[in-house]
Amino acid sequence: MEFVIEHLSKSFEKKEVLKDISFTFEEGKIYGLLGRNGAGKTTLFNCLNRDLKMDNGSFCIVDDSGGRREVAAEDIGYVLSTPTVPEFLTGREFLKFFIDINEKTIAAQKGIDEYFDYVSIEPEDRDKLLKDYSHGMKNKMQMLINIIAQPNILLLDEPLTSLDVVVAEEMKQLLRSLKQKRITIFSTHIMDLALDLCDEIVLLNHGVLEVVEKTDLDRKEFKDKILESLREEDHE
Ligand SMILES: Nc1ncnc2c1ncn2[C@@H]1O[C@H](COP(=O)(O)OP(=O)(O)OP(=O)(O)O)[C@@H](O)[C@H]1O
What we know:
By secondary structure, the protein is α/β, with parallel strands linked by helices. Helices cover 32% and strands 26% of the residues. It is built from 7 helices and 10 strands.
């Protein structure tokens, strides 16, 4: 499977944020999306999740036999940097509701407590209202429903920044264990996290996407190359 974006553009009034994005993402890889503040990472995710209407361009899934098809809503999982969960439900009610409404599409099911264990939400927190969860716990719940749904394309907008070091490490392991059979696109400002977790580093720079080639570079040289490419924007 490939996820192909062709000539995607998006402006807000006169500001052209995404100029001409064409890129092919491949199955089984985690892509680290890096860009300066305001580069358009969230805008790109919002367009791909169809929360925002793009001005031009298209995207599709290409299967292993070369057939192209539209991206359906269930193909995409989106974890927002600011988690949105139904605050009036308890963690357990939310999970149960999510599993119930997706019963037909969710393959291997675990018990609800097993899922909570999976993201280290303590037994005493499972029946609390989500409004009383911390930011990091809400983030874990969002991550968890995407783990359960197993979408073909997983978009993660800075999901680990609010998590404590132990949970962030666990989430990294989880994302690694989930990466086969899907495309994971992960935006972050933490370069070391991107380098540790991601198979490819993609820059959103000047409104376009480009891969940073790693060939023969050690970690420091690779970091310097990324920084240099991102700094170029200052000269615009
Ligand atoms: N709804 C909107 N209306 C007008 N301008 C917007 C809107 N959403 C985003 N923008 C502008 O588009 C640009 C890209 O914003 P976006 O949030 O996508 O960047 P980002 O790369 O995710 O930034 P950060 O790393 O700081 O989170 C910014 O200049 C922002 O002000």
